Amino acid sequence: MAALGWLTPRRRSATARSVLAGEAAAEAARKTQDTSVVAGGGEPVFPVHGDDRAAAFFDLDNTVMQGAALFHYGRGLYKRKFFETRDLAKFAWQQAWFRLAGFEDPDHMQDVRESALSIVKGHRVAELQSIGEEIYDEYMAVRIWPGTRALAQAHLDAGQKVWLVTAAPVEIAQVIARRLGLTGALGTVAESVSGVYTGKLVGEPLHGPAKAEAVRALAAAEELDLTRCAAYSDSHNDIPMLSLVGHPYAINPDSKLRKHAREKDWRLRDYRTGRKAAKVGIPAAAGVGAVAGGTAAAIALHRRRR
């Protein structure tokens, strides 16, 4: 599956498994793919209309959508009796942590991914893709941040491609991208044989350095100029991806990313409170509040297990 010819020189921090995960995500995304103007204030308008060597890359969890896509996916599978209540508690606790702490905990994310892989093992890929469409309507559509959605639309209106880049399963990432009218998605690729999941990953979860590898591979394949591309994320884990592009943006940033963005003079937007941030050529959209009830329920489930 890997296509090493896609890769341009990279930082040494990426492991071989990160490279494999990135290349697998880029290949899966491509298989399903459907001169600056100056504004009145003297600042170049961005994104630049008609620049087909530029594209935008958006993290998903808490950047495009409130909460973790994997948690909502788990809720949908639980509703369809793919697993038991005790397994749902794991998903719920991870989601509660994500909302309260404001950043991804690697141990939680790994635990949830391993649980998800064991759940889908033996199921057909086509079955999970169909269910993903239903789960999007049930749990995810109402959790899309309008402000980030407007940023993505600005790139589309400028004639540029827009990709989701997420640690969530590529199947659900592709559903979300399609529903939002985006170009496609790069996500974690689960191994399948003859259309049936084996319960293993190709490489590793598309997280941290692996995301940067996926963007690098896709940019090379699409003949993009990364210095003219943009990337958007809420998490300091995505600093490798953000550092690849010429236009990095911190969206709903965690504390570490906020600090780093300020040090690097990156632009910030926070749709959680409605605070204004640096303009990117379109008006800011209203933020969406956190769902306190869902968090409380998740905490209650965790305590009950104890």
Can you characterise this structure?
It contains eleven helices and eight strands. It is an alpha/beta fold and 306 residues long. The strands form two sheets. The protein has a six-stranded parallel beta sheet with strand order 3-2-1-6-7-8, with helices on both faces. A two-stranded antiparallel ribbon has the order 4-5. Helix 2 (69-79) crosses helix 5 and helix 3 (85-101) runs antiparallel to helix 4. The N and C termini lie far apart (43 Å). The relative contact order is 0.19.
Structural descriptors:
disordered C terminus; globular; disordered N terminus; 46% helix; 6-stranded parallel β-sheet; two-stranded antiparallel ribbon; alpha/beta; 306 residues
Provide the helix percentage: 40-55%
Average pLDDT, all residues: 77
How many helical elements? 11
The gyration radius over C-alpha positions equals: 19 Å
Which structural class matches the secondary elements? Answer: alpha/beta
Low-pLDDT regions: 1-9, 34-42, 274-306
Give the neighbour order of strands across the main sheet: 3-2-1-6-7-8
Principal-axes geometry comes out as globular
| Total count of strands | 8
Distance between the termini: 43 Å
Order of SSEs: HEHHHHHEHEEEHEHEHEH
Compose a concise summary of this entry.
The protein is 46% helix and 13% strand. 47% of the residues are buried.
Write the layout of secondary structure elements.
Blueprint: H1 16-31, E1 55-58, H2 69-79, H3 85-101, H4 106-120, H5 125-140, H6 146-157, E2 161-169, H7 170-179, E3 184-188, E4 190-193, E5 196-201, H8 209-222, E6 230-233, H9 239-244, E7 247-251, H10 255-264, E8 267-269, H11 292-305
Helix pairs in contact: 1-8, 2-3, 2-5, 3-4, 3-11, 5-7
